[in-house]
Amino acid sequence: MFNFPNTRLRRRRSSKWVRNLTSESALSVNDLVFPLFVHDREETTELVSSLPGIKCYSIDGSVSIAQEAEDLGINAVAIFPVVDSKLKSENAEEAYNSDNLICKAIRAIKLKVPDIGIIADVALDPYTTHGHDGILKSNRIDVENDETVSILCKQALALAKAGCNIVASSDMMDGRVGRIRKALDDNNFQDVSILSYAAKYCSSFYAPFRQIVGSCVSSNSIDKSGYQMDYRNAREAICEIEMDLNEGADFIMIKPGMPYLDIIKIASNEFNFPIFAYQVSGEYAMIKAATNNGWLDYDKVIYESLVGFKRAGASAIFTYAALDVAKNLR
Ligand code: PBG
User: Fold this and answer.
1) Cis, peptide link before residue 35, omega less than 30° from 0
2) Is 147 helix (H, G, I), strand (E, B) or coil?
3) Cα–Cα distances in Å, from 89 out to 63, 68, 139, 206?
4) 0.85 cut: is pTM over it?
5) Residues 207-260: pLDDT tens digits?
6) Ligand 1 atom nearest 284 alpha carbon
7) How far, in Å, are 184, 241, 250 from residue 153 at the CA level?
8) For residues 201 and 257, what is the distance between their CA atoms, to the nearest angstrom?
9) Is 56 helix (H, G, I), strand (E, B) or coil?
10) Which of 209, 317, 318, when mutated, tests ligand 1's pocket best, judged by the most ligand atoms within 8 Å of its CB?
11) How far is CA 30 from its chain centroid?
């Protein structure tokens, strides 16, 4: 038993050097993934006000920022397309056009910044007029699972052909990881990895992201509770993760991050596989709003929040603050 006064925990907090020697977790630039938005316009523009400081890049701009990320030591970027509404459709045909915006961006980045990892979402929401991650059943409410998975396979192949290193299934359809793995393998893409958003919760923290990709255009909100996970559940996340690993996922994602650190912890205790976590747009927006008001210190709060992910057991973290953090870590 540890008893006062023989044990005084403050002794190990008394100087910086001893705090450093006894620290249990650390954040390094190796842990960061930078999510970036790309559109088909010539110029790079500022984004919606709910994501202050975050830009939407032209294809050339995405190459420059990927280069900047690499120069800062960041290992991977996750690219999200902001698709022109004219190219959206009921059944998301543009998603598997091998010359679509994201494929062009992937090719451009691979050409100029060949050593940075490229991650791209497999999900239909940037391409559907209704904003859902899959195609709708005839009742126009529910998302059809198996046909959606067939389209996701075509999308994953288009991304792989363009040079994407990791396809990230963020759609939450059942059975998609196995079918995407098979489609990739059958087409000689054994080296393309799958990051499965295994435990992706139906969260209101995605609002700024949805505003950007335009997946809630018709209404102001969209209900994805028929496929994304119920946030009251933790044991179900284990089941999702186990199934995706059995189907061939290389890494798994927990998302959102900060309200779900318990899930990261459970998953990292349970599975000997790398756990990724996503500090999503709403989390970043909250921190930015408070810091822009002078209520919190941006650098300190972002750093503390990301160390929290590491302490919970995340190996890599998607964060819109990746470049800022990488600069400060130097
Ligand atoms: C699309 C997708 C979403 C996010 C990443 N991929 C939104 C959603 O599921 O509606 C959210 C990321 C963020 O909020 O930063 N499947």
Assistant:
1) no
2) helix
3) 28, 34, 17, 22
4) yes
5) 999 999 887 755 567 999 999 999 999 999 999 999 999 999 999 999 999 999
6) 15
7) 8, 20, 17
8) 10
9) strand
10) 209
11) 16
